[in-house]
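Lay summary. Proteins are chains of building blocks that fold into shapes, and those shapes determine what they do. In this project we predict the shape from the chain. Here is one chain we studied, written as its sequence of building blocks.
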Amino acid sequence: TQSTWGDASLSVSVATKMSENGDEQTFTLTLDDGTVKTSMDHYTGRGATATYANGDIYKGSFVDGKRDGKGEYIHANGHVYQGSFHDNQKHGKGKMTYKDQGVYHGYFQAGLRHGEGSFKYQNGDIYSGGWKNGKKHGKGTYVYGDTNGQLVGDWVEGKLLSGKWIFSNGTQFVGKFENNKPKGRGVWVFPNGNQVEGDYSQQLVGEEDSEEGQKLEISWKSGASTHLTPLKAN
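And here is the predicted shape, written in a compact code that computers can read:
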């Protein structure tokens, strides 16, 4: 489960309230003015801090006893969310910092990444574009931090289906993809304007139960080529 952020307060009251993972949890609630609540029933207000038995902490707005509006949720595992909530879930615009994984800025729906957003991964890679139910979906661009290469195009359930594989020198492959790698008919376009059409095939190699496991290999079969000759000045 994902966790969010908040300030821990010294609390002595005990009640039951749903944590972000949906479990009923024993928790304590301290209001911003130091008042201790012994019940969450229909509580509406800002600046309250809820500390759950699993170690999660939420500080922010409540409406009718639920996290709603601006707030911070700190998960016990180190993940931190800052942004909007609705009906106890991340909903609307926010920032999610995943411990040792990366940072997401963008929109959420019902607790999941949904809509436009950007995810910067721990290794320096960045994806910017559409999301649906927590996965890359729609138009998007994935940039590799180490090579500056890019995957640009249409994503479905976390994987690129069609678009471009662009190298830092301008060379690019345009076509279909599977497992985020080229597959099927496509064309290589080079910086000088030359183009090579062909087909990519994919094959799993190696033993499934071996220590290394199976690896996906791709192979290219060239077809027609187009060579563009620059015009000479008169």
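What the prediction tells us: The two ends are 68 Å apart (CA to CA).
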